[in-house]
Amino acid sequence: MTYDSNNLFAKILRGEIPNKTVAESEHALAFHDINPSAPVHVLVIPKGPYVCFDHFAAEASDAEIADFHRLAAQVCKLTGVAPDEGDGYRAITNAGENGVQEVPHYHLHILGGRNMGRMIARG
Ligand code: AMP
């Protein structure tokens, strides 16, 4: 899969565009979404050049995959949405045209702080 290194999140990773960092690890970065859809809306991205979820899941190393998910778990704790201490969240990722993915660098949205409603709108 061809990765466009001029995408917005690649620029954030290179420090060319600022971000509001929530947490960072060796292989991943978590930051606040600039246009939040919920009181908590954090994006978790791998530092490596992966376009979308299936690309990351197929091509990333075990270390990258583990590290990414550990950071996502840390974000749930840090933002207070983890169900053991908070009220829960939704984790979603968009891919490609039908998934309506805007930024072609894999990212997981962690949304919470309010009831997120049904998973997807019908139609
Ligand atoms: P997606 O539609 O799944 O590709 O999500 C892209 C997300 O990136 C949207 O929720 C945007 O609000 C968010 N976004 C766009 N630009 C920035 C930025 N500079 N910093 C943080 N989030 C951004």
Question: Characteristics of this structure?
Answer:
alpha+beta, 5-stranded antiparallel beta sheet, binds adenosine monophosphate
What is the topology?
Layout: H1 8-13, E1 21-24, E2 28-32, E3 40-46, H2 53-59, H3 62-78, E4 89-92, E5 108-112
Antiparallel strand pairs: 1-2, 2-3, 3-5, 4-5
Bound molecules: adenosine monophosphate.
Mind explaining what this structure looks like?
The chain has 123 residues and is of the alpha+beta class. It contains three helices and five strands; from the N terminus they run H-E-E-E-H-H-E-E. The chain has helices at 8-13, 53-59, 62-78, and strands at residues 21-24, 28-32, 40-46, 89-92, 108-112. The chain has a five-stranded antiparallel β-sheet with strand order 1-2-3-5-4, with helices on one face. The radius of gyration is 14 Å and the shape is globular. The N and C termini lie far apart (30 Å). The mean pLDDT is 97. The protein binds adenosine monophosphate (AMP).
Average pLDDT taken over every residue: 97
Query: Kindly, what is the distance between the CA atoms of the first and last residues, rounded to a whole number of angstroms?
Result: 30 Å
Radius of gyration: 14 Å
Low-confidence stretches: none
Number of helices: 3
Structural class: alpha+beta
Write a compact overview of the structure shown.
With 123 residues, the protein is α+β, with helices and mostly antiparallel strands. The chain has helices spanning 8-13, 53-59, 62-78, and strands at residues 21-24, 28-32, 40-46, 89-92, 108-112.
